[in-house]
Amino acid sequence: MEQQIYKGKLTQFHRLKIAKKEELTKNTFSLEFGIPENLKENFRFDAGQFVSVRFQAHGKEIINDYSMTSAPYEHKIALGIKMNSQEGAASQLFQNYHEGDELLISEPGGRFTLISKPSEFRTIVGFAAGIGITPILSHFKNILHNEPRTRLFLFFGNKSSEDLIYRDELDRLAKMYGDRLQIFYFFSREKTANSFFHGRLDDKKLSLIINQILHLDDTDEESTIWDAVDEVLICGKGEMIKTLANACYHHGIPKKNIHFELFEEFNDDIYPVEKEFPLIENVELEFKMLGKEYSAILPTNEERILQQLLIQKFQVPYSCKSGICGSCECILEEGEVELLENEYLTENEEERGHILACMSIAKSKKIKLNFDLT
Questions:
Q1: Residue-wise DSSP of 53-66
Q2: What pTM was estimated for this model as a whole?
Q3: DSSP 3-state helix, strand, coil percentages of the chain (rounded to 5)?
Q4: Which residues pair with 18 in a beta bridge?
Q5: Lower CB count within 10 Å: N or C terminus of the chain?
Q6: Confidence class of residue 290 from pLDDT cuts 50, 70 and 90?
Q7: Among positive and negative, which fits the CA dihedral 58, 61, 67, 72?
Q8: What is the pLDDT of residue 267?
Q9: 88 exposed, middle or buried (CB, 10 Å; 0-12, 13-18, 19+)?
Q10: Among 256, 108, 132, residue whose Cα is nearest residue 186
């Protein structure tokens, strides 16, 4: 086992051997790792989680997060990885590491998860774009395996059929669970026989999906399938998540039932901020990070705490700035803040004073934070 401080938190890594490597499309591939018996407990995970992979690329150590496509019952770690360019780190990972090689893999993390409810009748809808299918594939396999009463609808967008990954596996699942799983493919840069399936997954497309696919409910003649939706899963680029999350919310799905995973840095709010706060000037901020004490003066409380620290060049951990990833999680030890949105923290963590710096507005003249979570 090795340890690495990553994004402000201590992450444990273990050496795992590549059991299988497969090229999926011209710019995506999969890696599969077996889990030795002595590490079974370390690599227990929930559907929708990710691992970090440490590897060498261009002479530098790289640590990247990749979502798992495997479901917990499969007892393996399987990753879907996109290569954004021929010289990028992911391309180096594909070119330089092969079956039988070992890589440093972190213990699973992330909170793009759902509570399993095998005894309930549920309707779950998933929206994915490109490589965003990876954690949703993990979710769908796990739900189909463990929840015999749950029905699933997947809306999967890609540029073209050549870019569509995991189609064989998805089609196999649809055939095996045809009474509970329906999958619809959309292409933004390829003509389709039915124009309905041409274009991006956005708010307009969602309205059409609700009206033309998720309309009549065979189990309840007085309502629609959309009316019965219990949870929504969204994974893809930030703008897609923002558009679809707001569209789902405006079509009646509560925010707490809309779950999303971001695959890139995204600096916008997912939901619009509708609150106003009394102006406070020259906020005194003290914070602990990686064992060291720091202090700063925030000119006003008109911007979130994280953004103001980054402007002042403090190396505060962050990834998304949108309250999704949890990288900027810290403990509020003194003062008062307003947490605008939260897709990451549990109720118990909030009660214990945990906040997300990227979504927090200062509401007192003095604030004290601890990014070391101790």
A1: EEEEETTEEEEEEE
A2: 0.85
A3: 25, 35, 40
A4: 33
A5: C
A6: confident
A7: positive
A8: 66
A9: middle
A10: 132
